[in-house]
Structure formats: structure tokens, C-alpha cells
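Below is one such protein, fold included:
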Amino acid sequence: MEEPRREESAYDVALRQYDAVAEKLDIDPGIREMLRHPEFALEVAFPVKMDDGSVKVFKGYRVVHNTARGPGKGGIRYHPDVTFEEVKALSMWMTWKCAVVGIPYGGAKGGVTCNPLEMSKGEKERLTRRFTVEISNVIGPYTDIPGPDMFTDAQVMAWIMDTYSTQKGKFVPGVVTGKPIPLGGSLGRTPATARGLVICIREAAKELGLPLDSLRIAVQGYGNVGAHLASILEGYGCKIVGVTDIGGGCFCDAGLDPCALTAQLLETGSIDGTPGTDCLTNDELFELDCDVLVPAAVGNQITKANAGKIKAKIIAEGANGPTTPEADEILADRGVMVIPDILANAGGVTVSYFEWVQNLMNFYWTEEEIAERLERIMTESFQAVLSTAKEKGTRLREAAYNLAILRVAEAMKLRGVC
């Protein structure tokens, strides 16, 4: 009897994307093999006392993929679907993301399998502090620096920083990024991922001869990234024609009002049902007549099942791993420009790097200085990837991986790893 085929994990996808490029590069076989595996992986199970007095055991993970170019860097997510395989994949993608924009970090990632939407603030704080204790021998300002991710925020980072600092007996703001401003957070950090996306969309539109102020935009996900992205692009004259979130979606051919969407979200927990809009499903969102599609929710959203129905000319990956390799092939054949996640959403980790530098120096920059530095790094990085793609006749994803892998491999070789 034939065994059922195992469903491909996020880590399988990450490896396929890496292997497809690495096998064509002139790098040491040992280094190539090392980069297929994380340097360090920790799985913990820890108890948390809930509000009703019961004790619940949660599983948490912290994975460091590579530290050849600097300490590990990557967010911590709280979500029911967090798995070890997902965290490994995300840590690998972080390695390439940091390398492609040239910041001196390696890749890391963490997560706790939980449903934060069903937890009180007190329960989340107790979970965060206990998880921090469990990983405190791994994280540190010179070893592995967490940040916010799905369903974690500045408050969660403050709890991590406080717990770690208490253990060390001194104030250590550089152990995490994405903190509140009064605790050493950086100005401009909250909208940074969205601003980096906007810069990439602008440069891509310029390359394709599309005026920025006439773009029609569709966005999947209306969290921190999606909401800021919609607001910034609307300010540039773009029309946000469709948006979906976990509760539903909205469509308006004349353009949605981001302020109205945010008001509905704050009032009901979802943008669904925003007055003056039509209902929209995720399936319908991907088939909208638009210029730019921004998947900014979770992974594996663009697949071989829907890639052929996408009408957008540009896909800017706000989420990590939203497009499967099979979908990539279909989109390439149809001439769709895909701005890969390791470039498109790198604005967040770039400004996280700025925050870390400011913490270590104890000297802080203005929001204008942050924006200027982000603009320069993202623009130069996009152009470097675009130039590599043209030179080698590849898609942007392969070009971005090409640059990133070579940079990491060079650092490993110079350090004498192989």
C-alpha cells in the first residue's frame, strides 16, 4: 500500500528555495551544506498559571540559523499554528533577509504555540516572562536579539527586556528590538516594514513604467504592516481597492479609506463590514483587477491553485513565505514581477538594526534620520537585486538569494569555517 504523501512544510519550501540557487553558485560544498541547517535549535515546554487558577503547559521554540555575519536576529510570534518546522524556515529566511540588505546580523526566529486572542493581558505577560526565562541563556545583545512578530508587540518586547534585565541585574535594552520608545525603542520602528514595502513597490513600478499615483492596490492582512501600508500608499495617491483580514474583507472600486477600515477594526476586531464597502473573500482578493497585490498575512497563500488567476502586475511579499515555488513558476511565465519577502519586508529588521545600534551607543536618532537611512538601504538593496536579476537573466527571488547566499558564504569562508 502506497504511503500518503507528507504535506510540505515551510522548512521544506525554504530548503527548496535555497537549494535552487545554492547549487548553481561557486561556493565550498561544506559551506553549502552547513547553510541547509540551523546552528542552534531550542524547544522548551513550560507551565503558565492561567486566570482561572489552572496550569497550562505551552511549547516554545528559538532557532538560530546562522551567525557568520553577526548575532542572530528575528522575531517571536504567538500563534496556534507555530511549529518547530515553521520557526526553522523563518530563521533561515531571516539570514537571507539580513544579508540581502547588508545589515550585520544572522537569522533567528522564535515562537510559542498558543492562541493570544483567547488570553488575557495577565496570562500573556506570565507566558512571556516564563518563556524569556527558558531562552535567557540563548538570547542576548551580542548573541541573539528577538523582536516583535505575529501577535507580539512593543509591550511583549518590554516584558522580555525587563525579565532578561532583572536576571542580569542591569538594564539591557539591546536584548530585544521593537520596544516602547521610553524603554529604548526607535522612532519609526512601528511602520518600518510597511515603509520598506512602499519603497520596493515604488521602485518596481518605476521599472515597469507604472505611475505611483495611479496604482490600484490589493492587500491581504490588515495588521501592523497592512494598515500602515494602506495609509502610506493612499497618501501617495494610490487606490486601495481591496483588503482582507482574519474576519473578512472589503472592496471598493473607487478606493477604500484606510481611516474607516482602522476605525471598523478597532470597534469590531475586523475590517469586515466597513460602511460603504462591499464584502470580499480572500479568493476574490487574489483575483482582483489591480496593479499591486500585497500578501501581508501568513505563508503559503499564493499557490499553483490561484497563481494563474492573479491579475496584478506586481506582487510585493509583505508576509514571510506567502508564495510557493510552484506558484513562482506560474507567475514568472505570466510576466508578474514578484518582489521576494527577503527583500520586500526587510524594512522592519533594518530599523530594528537601527534601534539596536542606538541602544548600544545610548545615542538616539530623529525620525527623519531613521527614514533617510531606511530609504537609502532599501533603495540600494532593490536596485542591487534588480541589477543582478538583469545580469543573470533570473527572477528577483533568485537574484536576492544569489546576493544573500554569496555574502553569507564569503563571511563563513573568511572566518575559516571551511
In short: The mean pLDDT is 94. Residues 270 and 318 are 19 Å apart (CA to CA).
